Amino acid sequence: QVQLVESGGGLVQAGGSLRLSCTASGRAFSSYAMGWFRQAPGKEREFVAASSWSGGTTYYPDSVKGRFTISRDNAKNTVYLQMNSLKPEDTAVYYCAAARSIIDLRMNSGIVNWGQGTQVTVSS
Q1: pLDDT per residue as tens digits for the range 107-120
Q2: Separation CA 2–CA 29 (nearest Å)
Q3: Dihedrals phi, psi of 30, to nearest 5 degrees
Q4: CA dist., res. 71 & res. 3, Å (int)
Q5: What is the per-residue pLDDT for 26?
Q6: b/e per residue, 51-61, with b = 16+ CB within 10 A?
Q7: How far is residue 120's CA from residue 124's CA, in Å, rounded to a whole number?
Q8: Distance of alpha carbon 29 from its chain centroid, rounded?
Q9: CA-CA distances (angstroms) from residue 85 to 71, 79, 114, 117?
Q10: Cβ contact 35:49 at 8 Å
Q11: What angle is formed at CA 7 by the lines to CA 59 and CA 41, rounded to 5 degrees?
Q12: Which of 28, 83, 95, 120 is the most exposed place for a label (fewest CB within 10 A)?
């Protein structure tokens, strides 16, 4: 089973950028679809981005489309989330996740494993 560790969170002003990284250990990282979710205090975990195993297909909800970009480097067992034009409402703990398919990520079902999360805080 793949183990996931996120990094790159922090404090940024509104309009700024951050890049999150999620490095996987274990077998067959390149066989998994990878995604990012976030959870703000008092709210449910929200899907924000997904990538197919090859990186050739990506998906975003409207709330982040055009601002967030997911990418992956299978040689480095790492998936990234580039976040631009950040807003205070993007403040949350961000989690990466591995799944068998993008559909599983979009439906938040059949998640194989989660990372421990990294805090992103956007100040106004």
Answers
A1: 999 899 999 999 99
A2: 7
A3: -70, -10
A4: 18
A5: 77
A6: bbbeeeebbbe
A7: 13
A8: 15
A9: 18, 20, 26, 21
A10: yes
A11: 75
A12: 28
* Chain position carrying tokens 């480095």: 76
User: 């999150």: which residue's tokens?
Assistant: 20
- Residue 18 main-chain phi, psi, to 5 deg: -145, 150
Q: Tokens 């959870």: give the residue.
A: 39
- Tokens 């067959």 locate to 28
The per-residue DSSP string of 3-48 comes to: EEEEE--EEEETT--EEEEEEEESS-GGGSEEEEEEE-TTS--EEE
3-state secondary structure of 74: helix
Strand partners, 33: 99
What does the pLDDT read at residue 27?
A: 73
List of the chain residues with pLDDT < 50: none
- Count of other CB atoms within 10 angstroms of residue 123: 11
Residue 77 identity (one-letter amino acid)? N
